[in-house]
Amino acid sequence: MNLVDTHCHVQSAGLAAGERGTRELWAKDPSLTGATLVDRAAAEGVTRLMVVGCDIADSQLAVDFVQQHDQAWASIGIHPHEAAATLEAGDAALKTFTDLLQQPKVQAIGECGLDFFYNHSPKAEQLKILQFQLELAAKYDKPVIFHVREAFDDFWPIFDKFSQGSIRGVLHSFTDSRENLDIALEKGLYIGVNGIVTFAKSEAQLAMYKAIPLERLLLETDAPFLTPTPFRGTINEPKQIRIIAEFLAKLRGEDLALLAQTTTANACKLFGI
User: Going by DSSP bridges, is the β-strand pair 46-52/190-193 parallel, antiparallel, or unpaired?
Assistant: First the structure.
């Protein structure tokens, strides 16, 4: 089986660097290094990884990581939580971020978007840093990994304003309504599904997962977060993509091999990997 983890944060595993929450979770198991995680994923048929940055330094780590691993590619991003701090750092920080797009194996921008659940950055700053990244995506023809939480009413207008039909990408960790799923599909976006699906209880949410067209479905772990059932309580790894694929195939009544083949083709098409 040939599977792709389209969203993981393995660049800080085993290091005293990277986005704080991610780094601290990896530190709970010092045996989990980046190389170990890549090897363990490959043993389970997960042969490609998209390594996703959440701020400028974290994105630089992702870029460095993928130069050392043939199976990995990078997405550089400024998470909405980091919007205020990034803007406070000024134009030099934004130039540093932009320059990362020129590095080898940088295939996407994100994760970026809006998060009005936590509001770690004010709404205005979130909108500004999202706009900055959408403009880069259009200019450099890069797909985008979107993080949108309780913010679709504000997200769709800015997406439409700056996409002009040219922005392609994926809604990462999608758990929202069937209505927003349908809007996303109309706009040509892919839908990222991770371990949340394995412990979702709402019938409406499970029905939404069933409704995602196979040709628009992507698999992701968000490792080290969101470990799927039956491994809840442990640190998530890219190897768990296989568990997510098996669960989805059963939930949706699809052949596992077809689901694996199609989601892998979707990932390769979107990210050019």
Answer: unpaired
Domain that holds residue 207: 3-271
H helix runs in the chain, sequence order? 20-26, 34-43, 56-67, 83-89, 91-100, 123-140, 152-163, 178-186, 196-199, 203-211, 241-252, 256-271
| CATH number for position 65 | 3.20.20.140
Query: Average of pLDDT values for 36-50?
Result: 97
Question: From the CB of residue 263, how many other CB atoms can be counted at a distance below 10 Å?
Answer: 27
Confidence tier at 162 by pLDDT (50, 70, 90):
confident
DSSP state, residue 223: B
* DSSP secondary structure letters along 130-165: HHHHHHHHHHHT--EEEEEES-HHHHHHHHHHHHTT
Q: Is the pTM of this model over 0.90?
A: yes
Main-chain dihedrals φ then ψ at residue 31, nearest 5 degrees? -75, -15
Q: Per-residue b/e over 18-40, b at no fewer than 16 CB within 10 Å?
A: bbeebbebbbeeeebebeebbee
Query: Cβ–Cβ contacts within 10 Å for residue 156, how many?
Result: 15
